[in-house]
Amino acid sequence: MLRRRLVLAGAATALARATGTASAAAGPDLVLGQSAPLSGPLSPPVRAFNAGAQLAFDTLNARGGLAGRRLRWITVDDRGDPALAQAICDKLITEQNATALFGCAGSLSMAAIEPLLRRHGVPALGGLWVADSVRTQCRDIAYFVRASLDQEASALALHLATVGLQRIGVVHLATPFGQEGLKTIADALTGEGLTLSGTAAVTPDGATAQEAARKLLALAPQAIVLFVNGSQAATVMATAAGLRRHPAFYGLSIVSDEDAIRSIGAQARGLAISQVVPYPWSESDRQIVDYRALATAAKVPVGYASLEGWLNAQVLIEALRRCNGDPSRARLHATLKVLQWYVAGMAVNFSRQELSGSRFVELVQLTASGRYLR
Question: If pLDDT is split at 50, 70 and 90, which confidence band does 142 have?
Answer without folding.
Answer: very high
